[in-house]
Amino acid sequence: MIGPLDGVKVLDLTRLLPGGYATLLMADLGADVVKIEEPGKGDYIRWSPPMVGSHSAAHIALNRNKRSVTINLKAKDGRTLLEDLVGEYDVLIESFRPGVMDRLGVGHDALRARNPRLVYCALSGYGQHGPRAATAGHDLNYIGYAGLLSIIGREADRPVIPGVQIGDLAGGGMASVIAVLAALVRRGVTGEGDFCDISMMDGALSWLSIHAAEFFATGTVPQAELMTLSGAWPCYRIYPAADGWLTVAALEPHFWTELCEAIDRPDLVGDGFATGARRADVVAELDDLFAAKTRAQWMARLEGRDVCVGPVNDFDEAFADDQVRARDMVIEAEVPGGGPFRHLGNPVKLSSAPPAGLRRPPPALGEHTDEVLEQAGIDEAGRSALRAAAAI
């Protein structure tokens, strides 16, 4: 079986997490992703500990199923080489600050002239225009500007930093994939490429659709501890167990009613949405009740009941979970020089394609330079000349 993106050729000029995650999703689905890296240095994520053999764990996670080519974009011959490669590729994705590729002479307009069918994706923190377009930043900055950080929660007197890079992964990585696939569909109709302008701040903002609608309707600035789906109601909270925590998300009345019956507290049926002093009393009672048993004891007791209750798993528990395993979300493969290694699977499941696996191990820096250039029609003499010019 072939992957749904089999035959789609992608040049990946990104570094670190956002672009790496975007092209990982595409590579897992069958795209031929060629990672373009700076000679002698490569993507910084290659050197981020912990290491597994000669590879960093982060590099293994993000760059499986990709090839690596080294090109020096600061050298004229390197830029000419990129222009030549673009003629054979469907997609180029980069994550430089706005204007960098144009200053190098290989921006969208220049590359589109070489390949009018090219889908060019520019992934940046704040987008290609606006007063902050050229400003440096990372995930925490983007979600801070977007307002998302203000509703995640608070620890003592300050907002909590999320443990997952929401702006990088969702606002940047996933949004880039959606944009590229939409542009490829459009190209199939018009025959023309496109320019995808992806801002991680925009992506983070888009996650606030319902919260923003409530604010636009009422003018009330939301506070994390008072939001209905952040623990304001007894029916939707995290409660302590004897050995950890339980998620209770019995939001609909029939779920809450069944939960109250299952824990022998039918007297609480009318208190799922309690507020004020009554809310505090109900939460305190449920804290004590759930804390009396372990998570496993509660899950066994609630087995087969429609109650929307689950454990807060740590990584050991999550990656060993039967449902996670059944969904092929943990896969095992050999890493050259590192032995067996577990990867997370791809969340996209299609009936026409096999589950994502390790078709190609994460590449060494420049491992496929000769292979890719030969496929592009550059013979050994040509490659030697490029090396002599410090272009590859």
Q: Specify Rg, calculated over alpha carbons.
A: 25 Å
| End-to-end C-alpha gap | 35 Å
| CATH class label of the largest domain | Alpha Beta
Given as residue ranges, the uncertain stretches (5+ residues, pLDDT < 50) are none
Helical segment count:
16
Work out the helicity level: 25-40%
Helix/strand-derived class?
alpha/beta
Number of strands: 15
How much of the sequence is in beta strands? 15-25%
| CATH 4th-level superfamily of the largest domain | Crotonobetainyl-coa:carnitine coa-transferase, domain 1
Give the CATH topology of the largest domain. Rossmann fold
How would you characterize this protein structure?
It is a single chain. With 392 residues, this protein is of the alpha/beta class. It folds into two domains: 9-206 and 327-389, Crotonobetainyl-coa:carnitine coa-transferase, domain 1 (Rossmann fold); 236-320, formyl-coa transferase, domain 3, CATH 3.30.1540. 39% of the residues lie in helices and 17% in strands. It contains 16 helices and 15 strands. The protein has helices spanning 16-28, 57-63, 76-86, 100-104, 108-114, 139-146, 166-190, 200-206, 209-218, 253-262, 276-291, 295-301, 315-320, 322-326, 369-375, 380-388; strands at residues 9-12, 32-37, 51-52, 55-56, 66-70, 91-94, 119-124, 154-155, 158-159, 194-199, 236-241, 244-249, 309-311, 330-335, 339-344. It has a six-stranded parallel beta sheet, sandwiched between helices. A three-stranded antiparallel beta sheet has the order 11-12-13. β3 (51-52) and β4 (55-56) form a beta hairpin. α1 crosses α7 (166-190) and α7 (166-190) packs across α8 (200-206). The longest helix has 25 residues, at 166-190. It is elongated, with a radius of gyration of 25 Å. The chain starts with 8 loop residues before the first strand and ends with a helix. The model has no long low-confidence stretch (mean pLDDT 95).
